[in-house]
Amino acid sequence: MPSSSVLSVPAAIxxxxxxxxxxxxxxxxxxxxxxxxxxxxxxxxxxxxxxLWAGPLAVWAYRSLGAGRLPRNGERGSASAGPGMTRxxxxxxxxxxGRDMPGMSGKRARPxxxxxxxxxxxxxxxxxxxxxxxPWLFRLAPFTLWxxxxxxxxxxxxxxxxxxxxxxxxxxxxSMTRRRGAALWWRAFKxxxxxxxxxxxxxxxxxxxxxxVLGLPLSPASPVFWFMMQVSMLCGFMTSYPMNWALIRTGVxxxx
Length: 256
Fold this sequence. Notes:
The protein is mainly α.
């Protein structure tokens, strides 16, 4: 049938991109075990989760912006270095993600755009988990919103994204302050809700195109669905990046 032949190409591409995503995720998990632990421990989850949709692009970001840019454990011995040199090398190897260095000329440890990319991916990790879990949960308990099941599924995934996203944001903030409890949870919510919403808007826009314009199957049992979901995550990144730029520039969100 013509329709099946049309769908066979996206399905084949979907299988390839899904394999690349899983392999990239496994690579980052394996590589992180050989690197110094980041100052913000939650980033050890952020990078492999984003690799599920970004594939080799996430590997590049991890190697360029994350712990992957640091020397592997044991690669640079310091036995012959003096105490001052050892401390300097240790400082150079530290991943200062999410921390400004006011004592060092007031400059951030990395270019601003890199902080925005990292912050956007931090937000995207929660959205990715929600969009992995949400479609299956919705199949177990479907419901309609405004007369359409798609809106019901989107609502469920938004709530899940908010729960995961605020959790990731709380973990990030907790690594930078000794404060805990309701006040920090509220701060995490305020920081994450705008960037997360911007991400979901981009994702929903692409999935709507897939459903109403391209007429592609939106069943989680289809590789086409997950290929389109990967594309929608890229759209979410693009719509969330300007929001994160503004939030970090205005001081609402801490640079990572």
